[in-house]
From TrEMBL:
Protein name: Rieske 2Fe-2S domain-containing protein
Lineage: superkingdom: Bacteria
Gene Ontology terms, MF aspect: 2 iron, 2 sulfur cluster binding; metal ion binding; monooxygenase activity; oxidoreductase activity, acting on paired donors, with incorporation or reduction of molecular oxygen
Organism: Metabacillus arenae
Keyword check for Iron-sulfur: yes
Keywords, comma-separated and alphabetical: 2Fe-2S, Iron, Iron-sulfur, Metal-binding, Oxidoreductase
Gene3D superfamilies: Naphthalene 1,2-dioxygenase Alpha Subunit, Chain A, domain 1 (3.90.380.10), Rieske [2Fe-2S] iron-sulphur domain (2.102.10.10)
Oxidoreductase as UniProt keyword: yes
Length: 427
């Protein structure tokens, strides 16, 4: 349970809010590279409550700028993207990718005026098919985070972004929730699974350790990237299944995985306080990924604005017959099941009314870290720093080992991920 004040602090991320200003100090995945073509249609993208557009100019450079034209506010989304800039359809003012105004046709005789006009723009970086941005103050821009999958060949990965209709925090909480997999994602019969693919469109195989039984033990430990959330489940007669979820501050995760399965990385970026850009990167360590199989498994059907066609508006196409015979929810697709669970809470769930149990331990730790960090930030303290030496080697593993072993023996945290405090304490 959270107080109403803490729930407010956790969930409000627009400009000027404490959490919003803290989030602006981290790199954000904004768009997929293939959304933008040179001199092609611009793309709208709302991030942290700000309405922006992105465009790729004649030379391939990307601009991420405020949507409203600084002249009188017309949307630049409708503008003309050519000749190394975007021109407003209303009176023809033109802007380049740096946000500089390069032409005002009606004020040709007054170049000084033109030079005073600037549109808000944010720096971008294009990495492995994703366009990232940094929306904080220039002097605080951190090193670009080098996640493990960025070191893999591009054919080993795929990414998807989707507009999810609720606050980022409840989407991220779902990702740290081990127990829901045993219910929400449970397929009632054995599933046909492809190489490295965890599950099909009906849900997760009932024999998978995530589904077979809820974890018998959970624990959370502090790390130099955020939190490592450990779960121990029953594997077979002699072995337990040891699993981990990594919560990387402030809004990235690696959900649980076992050897041989494709890896998964998520980011939950507030679109505004009532909706989220949910990013999903699937990656294989050692072979090209099956893009179609992964899309099918997730089951999302998106329109050109990345809005879902299977949504709360049509009850997620729930099939009551399928619920009796096929899977726990009667909803097809792992992602649709997750969206149904989190969006039906309402856009911002009232955490003063919830009743958390021991199964919610990772969520409690994640909230605690976010609230502790945002309060420290309000007090003018330095924010949490991500270290690439650590990030480069981090992903979720998961293994079977003797049920006589504790998780600390079977599945210890590698020393490179330990916090300085941890090192001091264990000396
Ligand atoms: S409003 Fe854009 S040029 Fe006038
Ligand atoms: Fe899920």
């Amino acid at each position: 349970m959270l107080s109403k004040q803490d729930n407010h602090l956790l969930t409000r991320t627009g400009p000027g809010t404490p959490m919003g200003e803290l989030f602006r100090l981290y790199w954000i995945p904004a768009l997929k590279s293939d959304e933008l073509k040179s001199d092609g249609k611009p793309q709208r993208v709302r991030l942290l409550g700000e309405d922006l557009i992105a465009f790729r100019d004649t030379e391939g450079k990307i601009g991420l700028i405020e949507e409203a034209c600084p002249h009188r506010g017309t949307s630049l989304y409708y503008g003309i993207n050519d000749g190394c800039g975007i021109r407003c359809m209303y009176h023809g003012w033109k802007f380049d990718t740096n946000g500089d105004c390069t032409e005002i046709p009606s004020e040709e005789g007054d170049p000084k005026f033109r030079k005073t006009i600037k549109i808000k723009n944010y720096p971008v970086k294009e990495v492995k098919g994703i366009i990232w941005t940094y929306m904080g103050p220039e002097e605080k821009q951190p090193e670009f985070p080098e996640f493990y999958w960025m070191g893999l060949p591009v054919e080993n990965m795929m990414s998807e972004r989707v507009w999810q209709e609720c606050n980022y925090a409840q989407v991220m909480e779902n990702d740290l929730d081990y127990v829901h997999a045993a219910f929400l994602h449970k397929a009632l019969g054995k599933q046909e699974v492809g190489e490295g693919i965890l599950s099909t469109d009906l849900g997760i195989d009932p024999n998978h350790p995530l589904v077979r039984n809820p974890p018998v033990k959970q624990d959370v430990e502090d790390t130099n990237y955020g939190k490592r959330c450990i779960a121990v489940g029953i594997g077979n007669e002699t072995d337990n299944a040891f699993m981990e979820i990594h919560y990387i501050f402030p809004f990235y995760t690696f959900p649980p995985r076992f050897e041989g399965e494709d890896g998964m990385w998520h980011a939950f970026i507030p679109r505004d306080d009532y909706s989220t850009w949910s990013w999903d990167v699937q990656f294989s360590h050692n072979r090209p990924i099956d893009v179609q199989a992964n899309h099918d498994r997730r089951g999302l059907k998106l329109d050109e604005h990345f809005k879902k066609q299977i949504s709360i508006e049509n009850d997620y196409a729930q099939d009551r017959e399928l619920q009796k015979t096929g899977n726990f929810t009667g909803i097809r697709g792992i992602a649709n099941q997750d969206h149904a669970a989190t969006e039906t809470m309402g856009p911002i769930v009232d955490r003063s009314k919830e009743h958390l149990g021991t199964s919610d331990l990772p969520i409690i730790h994640m909230r605690r870290l976010l609230l502790q960090q945002v309060k420290a930030f309000q007090d003018g303290k330095e924010n949490f720093t991500l270290v690439n030496d650590s990030l480069k080697n981090l992903y979720s593993a998961g293994l079977y080992d003797s049920n006589q072993k504790s998780w600390q023996e079977a599945f210890p945290l590698q020393s490179q991920f330990k916090t300085k405090e941890f090192e001091v304490k264990s000396k």
